[in-house]
Please model this.
Amino acid sequence: MEWRYLGIGILDMTYLRNNFRGNNFQGNNFRVDFRYASSNEGITLIELMVAMAVAGIVLMAIYSAYHTQSTIYRTQSVELAMQQNLRGAVYLLESEIRMAGYDMNDTGNFGIIDIRFRNIDDDLDLNGNSSITFTSDLDDDGIRDMVADSDPVTNDIADPGSALPKNEKISFCIYDNPVATPDGILDMARNNGGGRQIIGESIVALGLAYAFDNDGDGRLDLSPNGNVIWAIDSDNDNDLDRNLDTNDDGEIDDVDDTNGDGIIEGTALGTNVAVGNIRAVKSWILARTKTPMLKYLDNNTYVVGNRRISPTALGTRNYKHQLLVSTNNCRNLGMQ
Model:
């Protein structure tokens, strides 16, 4: 019987089966012997060590990649939490300020009523953070419905004709939550009569400055160089008295702190401005991560209202900080 070649490298398998005997394959002029190698020897110590070294290198590479990715993930998670807190606080502050002075009946009873500096205990303190309190006629009844407090500037009584308790006075400030057992990490709070409620965690500082229309021409008052005047109440008497733009270049920055003491003194206004003439609010909100960042040092200096803040001085140099600055026109106070 002859074997049949069916193509390159292909044999008739029927022929193979019929002519396979034991360990030999026989055919006309064709023979294949199947031989088996056998050995009782194992791998040598050197071979084992080489294999272990190669495996170790591979495992180290895998762990290094995992550790790097894990570190990046944790870092991004911490930064994302800070950014979410910051954006949430900014959004709520901006949206509420836009409603300041809402007065459907044009009674003149609503607007910004307090701009004094306060500490984390909500007491008046020039060394504290900026704060703001304003009112809006949310129920369109023309009456300032408020929860009574001990401050003669912001105190009022609840509307006796209202069946439900409500409060049309809203304030924003910096405090340390929880108040009963502070953790040493500052936060931002909103209060509409039910006490200070947290709206942003790890908010290091809040700065506010105000533009105004003191001459009643319907436009913001300008500096000699034609820049909008952003003023603060430097003595906590609830009147604007100093322009933060010391050099009148249109920017509030490091150079406006002329003596380098960390406080922007600004320049005196020609006359004090009542809070009732405020038409716009500029806000600075500085946040930081809740935990230190690996191999990170923040050497920046941040201008927050009338203050220059250094993480090094605060002891938070290993934390990442982020500052958001926004300008809000008070549409219900005459600014579009």
About this structure: The longest helix spans residues 45-98. The longest strand covers residues 278-288.
